[in-house]
Structures are given as structure tokens and as C-alpha cells.
Amino acid sequence: LQMLEQQVVVGEQAQNKDLKEKHKRRKKYADKRRLQLVAALQESNEDSSEQSLLNVYDSIQEEVRAKSKMLEKVHEKLRAAKTEIKDLQLEFGLEKMDYLSTIRRQERDLMLCQQLLDQVQSLVWRDCNYSNLERIRREFVWDKESGCWKIPEPVIQKTHLP
């Protein structure tokens, strides 16, 4: 029973660390990409305003062509930004589904352990300290260094009648 609990508890924690690292990397990448897009949009806004102030056009049609090209560039950047946003949303949606499936699996494993403990508890002798599951749970201590629970040793308390 203890081996099963350690496999379930320690195994899930290891996966959680991996998932957290993966999530941190993806979030850093998304933040970096978002900042790049914002900087590119600000730069394009500054460039377009400078061009329109510095250029003196010979005809209205020439001005229309130049501004149409600028508008096409802006539309292209907007499409790229929208595509990037959709990709990021899809990626975070997949991560969310992955987290939810992990949570569901952990809940199932927890229910299995709880049912197993409920079945095994009736087999433990009454004079053993493990016969009272709630008392044992109160005595559990989490050890941060080793990353596991410190469980009290089983003790059999025999009572002697006079």
C-alpha cells in the first residue's frame, strides 16, 4: 500500500514539475513574441507618419498609391498578428486540456487509493496505531527536502489485563 501511494504521489509530482517548466517556457516565448509584435507595430506607425510628412507628391494618384502600399503593409502585419494570436490561443487551449486531463487522472488515482485504504483499514488489528486512519493522517508530516510524506512507524499497543 505504501509503495502504491509513493508511486502515485511521487510520480504525479514529477510530471507536475515537467508541466510547470513547459508552461513557463511557453509563457516566456508568448510574452517575448507579444512584445516583438507590439514593437513592430509601433515602429510601423512611426515610419508611416514620417513618410507621410516628408514625402511631397507630384499628383494625387501617386499619393494614393503610396498610401495604399502603406495600408497593405499594415494589413499584412495585422493578419500576421491575428494569426499569431490564434496560434497562441490554440496552444494555451491544448495546455488547458492537458492540465484538466492530468487533474482528472490524479482524482481517479486519489479515489483508488482512498478506496484501497478503506478496504485495508478493516484488516488492520485494533491494537495497532494504523487502525485509526484519521489519527494517522493528523500525524503525517510533509518533508520538503525529500519531497515525500513522513509517516509514523506502525506500533502495536498490547494491553495486558491483570
UniProtKB/TrEMBL annotation:
It comes from the Eukaryota. This is KIF17 protein. The gene is Kif17_0.
